[in-house]
Amino acid sequence: MEALTPHQRRVLESLQRFAAEGHAPSLDELAQALGLRSRGSLHKHIRALEAAGYVQATRGRHRGVRLADDVLDSSVAEGTTGPGSWGSSTLPLLGRIAAGQPIEALAHPEPVEVPPALRGHGECYVLEVKGDSMQDAGILDGDWVVIESRNHARNGEIVVALINGEDVTLKRIEQTPSGVRLHSENPAYPSIHVAKTQLQIQGVLVGQMRRYQSLLSPK
User: Fold this and answer.
1) Quick one: which of 201, 211, 208 has its CA closest to 139?
2) Is 41 a catalytic residue?
3) pTM (2 decimals)?
4) What is the pLDDT of residues 170-208, one digit of tens each?
5) How does DSSP classify residue 189?
6) Fewest CB within a 10 Å sphere: which of 117, 118, 204, 205?
7) Has residue 218 been placed in a domain?
């Protein structure tokens, strides 16, 4: 089976949670669980998972989606994640995020110990920060940030933002009637101004962790 993108992994993890409850969700239920207001992007991820053999779409009167038979019991092939793959105290480290670049996804996500107090209320994952654009908010190069997967945010929250369907950045969001400003926390980096139609919020920062030995290592 193929390695998955971070979005596809989150869809698969949600399906495994439903399966653990003995339920194959409808597309509306799945979208709600993932915090998606539109089913358009969800359809794309479902098609990719179906083509890769992870899920089976159900047809007929009650359209929905369920795990493929060989994935149903959470025995997911290497290179994928699921609730059966992580302990209750761990979250998947899905990749690295740098300002203005696509998320560098890990081929084999690593389990990271995350205390419950650092998690959000919804589905969460971990990204490693690359760069110093958020240093004045205390977010340094090499830090791990805990992201709650959702597509909306309040002004002042730090978000994972997808711009024009290509570039991803971690910035503080300000939403106005005329558009959206993404503020860095480093004067060396200017704010980014985009139209609302150019921006997709992929998650909100809810926790942060740091390995101090990496900061003390010789350059």
Assistant:
1) 208
2) no
3) 0.61
4) 999 999 999 999 999 999 999 999 999 999 998 999 999
5) S
6) 117
7) no
The Cα angle at residue 14 between residues 9 and 17, in degrees rounded to 5? 130
> 160 with 58, same domain?
no
User: Do 107 and 164 share a domain, yes or no?
Assistant: yes
DSSP labels, 31-94 = HHHTT-S-SHHHHHHHHHHHHTTSEEEE-SSS-EEEE-TTTTTS-PPTT---TTTS-TTEEEEE
User: For the domain that residue 15 is a member of, what is the CATH number?
Assistant: 1.10.10.10
Residues 49 and 98 in one domain: no
Please indicate whether residue 133 is annotated as part of the active site.
Answer: yes
More confident site: 83 or 111:
111
For residues 165 and 178, give the distance between their C-alpha atoms in angstroms, rounded to a whole number: 20
Kindly name the residue from 133, 178, 214, 217 that is annotated as catalytic.
Answer: 133
Residue 130 shares a structural domain with residue 191? yes
Residue in 14, 149, 171, 184 annotated catalytic: 171
Q: How far apart are CA 15 and CA 33, in angstroms?
A: 10
Tokens encoding 17: 């949670």
User: 90-98 and 64-67 as β-strands: parallel, antiparallel, unpaired?
Assistant: unpaired
Q: How many other CB atoms are found less than 10 A from the CB of residue 166?
A: 9
Query: Would you call 118 helix, strand, or coil by DSSP?
Result: helix
**CB neighbour list of residue 186: distance below 8 Å, 6 or more residues apart:** 132, 133, 134, 135, 136
Which residue range forms the structural domain that includes residue 95? 90-209
